[in-house]
Design goal:
The protein has 4 helices and no strands. It is mainly alpha-helical.
Length: 96
């Protein structure tokens, strides 16, 4: 997937965002909204996994080491780890 395609997907998702108030008072029962949200999260994570798998494969095939990453990439990886940790905690809270 090209970087421009990824940007287009992100822009599309940002345009579809709604405030919590709009979400809360939109049509549907709370359990339906939660189920739909979980389903949507799952489908988006599948897309993320595909991108990650492609990047890992390219890294392995091309022999690129982490020493070749830009400084900004290292920072982004750190922030991704933090975000994933927060997401994991959020998922655990939904499961309680």
């Amino acid at each position: 997937m090209k970087r421009s395609e990824l940007r287009d997907i992100i822009k599309e998702e940002l345009l579809q965002e709604q405030t919590y108030r709009q979400y809360k008072y939109s049509d549907g029962k709370p359990h339906q909204k939660i189920n739909t949200a979980i389903s949507e999260i799952n489908s988006k994570l599948i897309r993320v996994e595909r991108i990650l798998t492609q990047a890992q494969k390219l890294k392995k095939e091309s022999g690129v080491g982490t020493d070749r990453y830009w400084k900004s990439t290292q920072n982004k990886l750190k922030k991704l780890r933090e975000r994933i940790y927060k997401i994991m905690n959020g998922i655990n809270n939904l499961n309680v």
